[in-house]
């Protein structure tokens, strides 16, 4: 089965990363984002609990796969800092505040996952894996500077109810220097 296309949301915001940026791709699955970020010149720690996901990433320059279960044991990235953290189609609420801590000053969090209402469109349908209205923004607004947030239904690649967020870790004195990506 071919690897799905990377999320346009994630690609849009990660396009601002400089070559050599260190990125954490959580719950990477087959590595669609890890591959795209490595192609931009990033060094990617791709993490998934399924060791089979690492097979397809073996030999991809700039990608280091780590088989880790993020829902068991202590947070494995304590004290590590990244230029960006990317999460797509994964939700484990206890890790949310830890994602902000994993960012360097100026680091981006780019997140996209399923929200309440998705149960009418497909999987997942379990409320434990669906964000409540505005939950992603409410969680990260006190911790990071939110650059963009969306909460709605997408049509591609399949209809789904999602929330999307891009936020940056920055001191309040530096907010005036934040540059948004240009719309085309």
Give an overview in words.
The structure is a single chain. The chain has 184 residues and is an alpha/beta fold. The chain has a single domain, classed as 3-Layer(aba) Sandwich (Rossmann fold), CATH 3.40.50. The chain is 17% helix and 29% strand. It contains five helices and seven strands. Strands 3-2-1-4-5-7-6 form a seven-stranded mixed β-sheet. β2, α3 and β3 form a beta-alpha-beta unit. The longest helix is centred in the first third of the chain and has 8 residues, at 32-39. It is globular, with a radius of gyration of 16 Å. The N and C termini lie far apart (32 Å).
Write the layout of secondary structure elements.
Blueprint lengths: L7 H7 L7 E5 L5 H8 L3 E6 L3 H4 L7 E5 L14 E7 L7 H6 L1 E12 L20 H6 L4 E10 L5 E9 L16
